[in-house]
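Progress against Task 2.4 (sequence-to-structure conversion) is shown through the following example record, which the project officer requested during the mid-term review.
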Amino acid sequence: MERAGLGGLKLDAITTADVNKFLTSAQRVKGGKDRPLGPKTKRATVVFLSGLFESGMSDVPKRCLENPLTLKSFHKPKLAKSSAARDLLTQAETSAVLDQCPDKWALFFWLLGASGARIGEVGAARWSDLDLDLGVLTIRRTFYRGTFGPTKSGEEREVDLPDQILGALARYRTETFGAGPVDPDRLLFPGRTGGQPLDQTHARRVWAEASRKAGVRYRKPHALRHMWASVALKQSGDVKWVQGQLGHASAKLTLDTYGHVLRERRRERVSAIEASLGFRDGSVMATDPKPPAMASEPVDASARGIERPETAEDQ
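Structure tokens generated for the chain above:
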């Protein structure tokens, strides 16, 4: 297969076809052999390239006029469906792990579980992004591999927060700034290095150690996002709202990932409807059926259920 590279092209000369060809033919060395890029590597490459194009469009003068990865002709790599969205933390497990986390880390992980936001998005959040009065956190950017960049979808979004986490964040603000003014540009959860978020690798170690102490089988911190999405869908049934909270590019992605939750919810609904109607096993079956009408008797077609045209009530 002919390989395609992008290194020799200027940003404004790269087309959607170039990117499609690159993702199809690009290879990396693994185990001493050239191997095609895996789905996750392709998705990471797309996020990186999209950030470059968005940056080029905002430069003065502009280095490119459009992001070819947003056009319909772009073939977005698909990830294989993961079982992670089904291997959920329970509320009891989450509480047990949070109890074993240091205070600052406990609040960080609590915010992940209370919002459905990604770890890099919460890590990149500043105090100016948090509105305690409206109860929303505006996700404007993410932090990935040591660099601030656009969100995975390339768009900002507002995430609704519940009362208890808002109260905890208000107390955290007082502990951080006292009675003085809030520094709007300061990170919500700064790391040891000034201006840098909490280290994500360290965050996973803290979560793993807290899981061990709590006696809870380890799942990545990203499992908090899956837990939030599943509970939110089951309780609300509002796919568009959940999509917006998660920052998914489409409702289809939300349904592809968490559709099993809605199926379970539908089963509960129809069972509840059946119970409300009073149907029980055998309760609607005729116990003393009448004999069929003889040919010499007048025939009521509706009673026998034959040759009767459909009406709106039948549909």
